[in-house]
Amino acid sequence: MSSIDSVLKETRLFPPSDDFRTKAxxxxxxxxxxxxxxxxxxxxxxxxxxARELVSWRKPFTKVLDExxxxxxxWFEDGEMNVSYNCLDRHLESKANKVxxxxxxxxxxxxxxxxxxxxxxxxxxxxxxxxxxxxxxxRVVIYMPHTVEAxxxxxxxxxxxxxxxxxxxxxxxxxxRDRIQDATAKIVITANESVRGGKATPLKAMTDExxxxxxxxxxxxxxxxxxxxxxxxxxSESNNVWWHQLVKGLPDICEPEWMNAxxxxxxxxxxxxxGKPKGIQHSxxxxxxxxxxxxxxxxxxxxxDVYWCTADVGWITGHSYIAYGPLGIGATQVIFEGxxxxxxxxxxxxxxxxxxxxxxxxxxTAIRSLIKLGGDLPKQxxxxxxxxxxxxxxxxxxxxxxxxxxxxxxxRCPIVDTWWQTETGSNMVAPLPGAVATKPGSCTLPLPGIxxxxxxxxxxxxxxxxxxxxxxxxPFPSLVxxxxxxxxxFKSTYFPDEFNGKYYLAGDSAHYDEHGYxxxxxxxxxxxxxxxxxxxxxxxxxxxxANPLVAEAAVVGRPHEIKGESVVAFVVLKGDRPEGxxxxxxxxxxxxxxxxxxxxIAQPDEIRFGDNLPKTRSGKIMxxxxxNIAKGEEITQDISTLENPAILEQLRHSAL
Length: 656
Ligand code: ATP
Ligand code: MG
Fold this sequence. Notes:
Elements: E1 4-5, H1 18-23, H2 28-41, H3 43-54, E2 65-66, E3 74-75, E4 80-81, H4 83-87, H5 92-95, E5 99-104, E6 110-114, H6 115-131, E7 139-143, H7 148-160, E8 163-166, H8 173-183, E9 187-191, E10 194-196, E11 199-201, H9 203-213, E12 221-225, E13 240-242, H10 243-247, E14 259-260, E15 264-269, E16 279-283, H11 285-297, E17 306-309, H12 316-329, E18 332-336, H13 347-355, E19 359-362, H14 364-374, E20 388-391, H15 398-408, E21 415-417, E22 452-455, E23 466-472, E24 482-483, H16 487-494, E25 504-512, E26 518-523, E27 528-530, E28 533-535, H17 537-545, E29 550-560, E30 564-573, H18 580-598, E31 606-609, H19 623-631, H20 646-652
Parallel strand pairs: 5-18, 7-8, 7-9, 9-12, 12-13, 17-18, 17-19, 19-20, 20-21, 30-31
Antiparallel strand pairs: 1-23, 2-3, 4-14, 5-6, 10-11, 15-16, 16-24, 22-23, 23-25, 25-26, 27-28, 29-30
Bound molecules: adenosine-5'-triphosphate and magnesium ion.
């Protein structure tokens, strides 16, 4: 493989303020390097010490890492612990009355749950699951609105050793059925309805539909949380049970099931951006450790923080940075049921002011859409409580990064651009905010103990400035253990023979800059090959998004007789979608803009405009579908995770 050419030049640098640096959990580059040196010189000692410091063990481990059956690695193998115990019980002594969750419902009503209350509610629901015969190792599918109860359901599973598989509440009955079947789930936990953006979705009815489609014989009971006053159309006395009736009169104390460190905690499907979703299976202790390390180092957790991660519990971000990370470290966190644009695009900013949020973690897609829908709205709110901002999910284009930094962060808050995946379980590459100076669009440096490399197809390192495949060269505790029910796919996808089965292949392209910073360039699958130059999608998209007219852009390659491939760009403007002559004029301007910003080689041959782009339900652009559209092909791929199927039709007819 030839390397990938980098065409975007971004030189702005933002070191942490003296104030932030002095108070930070890891202070200054000396602090960062000290940790890295320890990891380099004594890898197992480094992780072993962290595991003793950040995890409470029932039975201490004696062995850190077992690599004998690579790539099926084992961490802290003979140790015993329980993740729910680590998130609840261990806080009861010192912070039972601390607010664990500030819940803001879709309609704006707010409730607060302390650690003691959360502990009792989790215990009681765990007893409810036990009363239905759920035992360690059983699979439980959770298909819930984004409420406190979703977290309680996950924690209760963890408490009794049941393996949860959370399915985002926006998924269709068909996607739910697939996941129920794949997990052979014994129980499904759902709600009568979910409410988002003022609209109710009948989750119970969709669960019935999923079960009705067939082959879900494993399911013995459906537990229904009553979110709204609406009665479900169908109710089976033998198979359905209301959450509140299930727990009625049950004790609110439940001894945790002591789990082996390697016992699975959950299975969760990837977003499906690049293909059919993979069922990622995580361990108990190693996974949990990853969440704790990153809460401390990347989110620089402080006792009086009000932390808010806007993801849904249906995604890995909602698992690691809502259900487990913040609770494990004892934080006060905001959970928001609704959507950022309801009642208007100022909702996030209003909530930051209202709850005095200090740490705010969201996705580039949310930032870009809020710029498009109301770039001026943040000014109406007092955002001075914020001290740290984060982003995850996709590469953030430097323009959106600068807006986030200036308009939301007041130029004062470091931005942690966190690169990681469902498979990695926790942040892998991200600035430690009191140490590493940030650059817009770069996720900067790997966390101490995370060994990255950028390599060509044979596994040979690629020189800085050139792009290649991002790999992680040593196993780490929070790494995926297997693909559920498909160990062979696990091995061939993540530890391919090309790298002698030794490197974890992330599937993203990236390059190092001259300071050793990592820049994600897009997905390996999406690399374009134009006149012998291999180009990642991120840089061309960032150049387009830097134009003042543009809100968002996605580029794909289309076969071209002479060039090999030509660049086709799908663009969403901040204003209305242009058509006809106006569209042609703007397209011409944008083509010239790209040529000027990053060079003629990256200039799109064709530009198309849409009201939106095809996105996964977790908000990621699905370029594989855009490739079909650019070529004028029918779409026959997996679209089970596509959020907005209607956009495909619009884009199909968007040629100017
Ligand atoms: P699938 O694996 O099914 O195709 P997916 O990769 O989108 O879906 P996730 O695990 O949700 O599923 O997403 C991980 C991917 O998201 C990463 O591989 C990377 O491409 C992208 N990503 C996440 N965070 C960042 C970030 N900070 N910068 C750049 N890319 C990111
Ligand atoms: Mg992926």
